[in-house]
Amino acid sequence: xxxxxxxxxxxxxxxxxxxxxxxxVGLVLCAVVGAFGGYLLxxxxxxxxxxxxxxxxxxxxxxxxxxxxxxTPTRSQTSRPPTTAPPIDGLLLPDVLGQDFREARLELRDxxxxxxxxxxxxGSDSSVHRTVPPGGTPVKRGITVKIYVVGGPPSVVVPDxxxxxxxxxxxxxxDDGLYPRYPSGESGEVREQDxxxxxxxxxxxxxxxxxxxxxxxTGTPTY
Length: 223
Prior knowledge:
Blueprint: H1 7-51, H2 53-66, H3 75-78, H4 101-110, E1 114-118, E2 128-132, E3 144-149, E4 155-157, H5 166-175, E5 179-181, E6 189-194, E7 200-202, E8 206-212
């Protein structure tokens, strides 16, 4: 037993210590590498967050295009059709409902429109309850507008138009609410009227105008 050398046991002890020390160094290196790798990964995440502002800005761009500058219509606004039709000749038919038919008729005629008055069966209510076309309609000057009156036609005194030109006499009768008729034509002057002046008719009744050349007084030469 005393003759066995002891160097071998010392060498084994030294080699085991070296292995332990080497393992510790390896663990330290692994930890350092892991920490450095984590740092790099964290740096990539940070860089990614900085670059991520690009997509956010890009996604905000389309919403910016939907908002027009002040005073500049958007595409949807410019392509939208008009909600109301533009007036023809710049004239919208006025609303005369509830007015006395005489005032309504005068207003429409002043605007260059013809007027036909349609009365009810009876009654004294002279207000307008309907027009064709209705008020607010775009119209052209020269058309005839029908105005419907609640009550019946009022009475009219026949004016004296004898001696006037046939056209002048016709305008006077229309202004008074009567209709002229021309049994002998429309040229010349009124030589006779039927019924005579001073009689009473209803609105829209007819007056016959007998028109022709003026007759020279007896004894006066004609040329």
